[in-house]
Amino acid sequence: xxxxxxxxxxxxxxxxxxxxxxxxxxxxxxxxxxxxxxxxxxxxxxxxxxxxxxxxxxxxxxxxxxxxxxxxxxxxxxxxxxxxxxxxxxxxxxxxxxxxxxxxxxxxxxxxxxxxxxxxxxxxxxxxxxxxxxxxxxxxxxxxxxxxxxxxxxxxxxxxxxxxxxxxxxxxxxxxxxxxxxxxxxxxxxxxxxxxxxxxxxxxxxxxxxxxxxxxxxxxxxxxxxxxxxxxxxxxxxxxxxxxxxxxxxxxxxxxxxxxxxxxxxxxxxxxxxxxxxxxxxxxxxxxxxxxxxxxxxxxxxxxxxxxxxxxxxxxxxxxxxxxxxxxxxxxxxxxxxxxxxxxxxxxxxxxxxxxxxxxxxxxxxxxxxxxxxxxxxxxxxxxxxxxxxxxxxxxxxxxxxxxxxxxxxxxxxxxxxxxxxxxxxxxxxxxxxxxxxxxxxxxxxxxxxxxxxxxxxxxxxxxxxxxxxxxxx
Length: 474
Ligand code: HEM
Ligand SMILES: *[C@@H]1O[C@H](CO)[C@@H](O)[C@H](O)[C@H]1NC(C)=O
Ligand SMILES: *[C@@H]1O[C@H](CO)[C@@H](O)[C@H](O)[C@H]1NC(C)=O
Description:
By secondary structure, the protein is an alpha+beta fold.
């Protein structure tokens, strides 16, 4: 009896030791990059998410680069991961999309975003969805429709904010951009809608990077609830539109309804709703973070603000009617502004990791990336590399002078790279430029409180950024 128990006990211990051992030393037919897999199951997840207030390469990455070199292995959210900080490997990973690598996000993300979202769609389906997105946010639409709409929205909001004692800039820009994007996508109007779509998105975002424990009270639970409610609102809106199909709104739902009517379509209502959700999320949180960070950097660097203001005042001076709207030609002439935007997104590192999955064993630079493993391309390590950007932590838009035209640069990946390059890049840049134009020509501001950043490792403003806006008197 006792010996049997002892036997089972010993067996269990041996099994556990074996398991821990194979966790620490994963099987691989070639040479794995160096690194540590951390604790069983948990891996190095907690270290990865540990908050830091610096804008430099996250300590998690920096320490391991020092110890292991530019490519290393780890384990995050239950998955073996190869982290690459090497510009050439990053570029290779982007270029091999669909062949050796495929877009992949941690399972908690898939659970949260829906199974059929644009991030996890591949091949034919994906190309088809992309063309739908480009239809709304592509160059033609930017030029003809979005430019004046963005300008009106910016002017209206700035005027409203200037009437207040204090504006929390992050929240205010997020609301502004959300309302504009939601109007374009689904004709959502917060003033007339009974349900608050953005509130549900907020709950969703707050729990997005949290421990995946789905019980009432946790941030993760609120996140899933937020998504559920937002999806229901989106679905009800689509149903309503289906009920009166003759009325056209010129938005994304028109497009979806049109497609759903076709016989040979592969679009389903579920996919369309997931896509809508991802687009709303991808567009407003990223761009409002970038704008808030830009205003923070401009507040701290008066010489940049001065040069930026000069560029925009010169545009007004060369106009026949200073009150006419921004033209496409004027937008294209904002050289310094676009340097400011590049420099802001370089330092902001809004997307701190871009994930892929290896479809086969991949040999690169003497290492093997095993089939099925995740690869995390790490933009901050590239954007803050002193051999590509001198004095990398300083906000110096002038460094972009003469760098125009090499769009596929291996040293710039704030919007990703290769086939999955951000489809909203042009829209985001245009929104930022137009907003900055309206801001610096008509207003000045003083920071009141907040403006501190934290990275977990995604960028956040934990106490917001409160400013006071004043109208300029000329
Ligand atoms: C400053 C603002 C923005 C930043 C920094 C940003 C960054 C990124 C990055 C790094 C990716 C690549 C992800 C990957 O390769 O897995 C991406 C993809 C994407 N972005 Fe953006 N983005 C911004 C604004 C926008 C806007 C305004 C929209 C929508 C209109 C948008 C829609 C998308 C979509 C749909 C994808 C997925 C594309 C795909 O999987 O192929 N983004 N974004
Ligand atoms: C951030 O990282 C630095 C460098 O690794 C470290 O000294 C600091 O304690 C970290 N924590 C915070 C909260 O910034
Ligand atoms: C901003 O960066 C992009 C991508 O590297 C580049 O194509 C563009 O020319 C840059 N803009 C300026 C004004 O330097």
